Hints:
Strand content: 15-25%
Radius of gyration: 17 Å
Number of strands: 8
Distance between the termini: 58 Å
Shape: globular
Order of helices and strands: HEHEHHEHHEHEEEHE
Amino acid sequence: MIWPKVVQERVKTGxxxxxxxxxxxxxxxxxxxxxxxxxxxxEEMFLAGYTNxxxxxxxxxxxxxxxxxxxxxxxxxxxxxxxxxxxxxxREEIENVxxxxxxxxxxxxxHLERLGEIPxxxxxxxxxxxxxxxxxLSVFRFDNQALVTPHLARLVGHDSPLLHLRKHGxxxxxxxxxxxxxxxxxxxxxx
Length: 191
């Protein structure tokens, strides 16, 4: 037997080979993972979280990094929920926390406003009919890696699980999540 059972149990050979790591909570993912993925991205950063608020507070010099990446030719996209949308209001009722969803979105918008107009940086709001699909799944792409948070029903994003994925093939789990985010982007409303 070429691959003994003990090796097969430890070496990823199927669809799970794209799974780098899983975390029971997004907040359990070390900030160094986020920083390293952001720093390593050279072609594509697609931040399709509903608020994207935590980047500004958890990633040192995030605004400077975005500016530097964009100026070097990296495409940087932010897909946000509409701060005044129905889904945003519904989510605020569900979460019932002091730092509301609309406030977190507005904080991101304020930071993006401070960046000014930079080539290669785009921001859109998810289309009203897509907002429910957006609020339930965050996809953060960094070239051929992604961090994905499937949001659990009544939890805030940082309390939901997180998957760290690395693209290995075509049409596998990485592509499926990225294609979902791209579909939302294709119908999103420019800011």
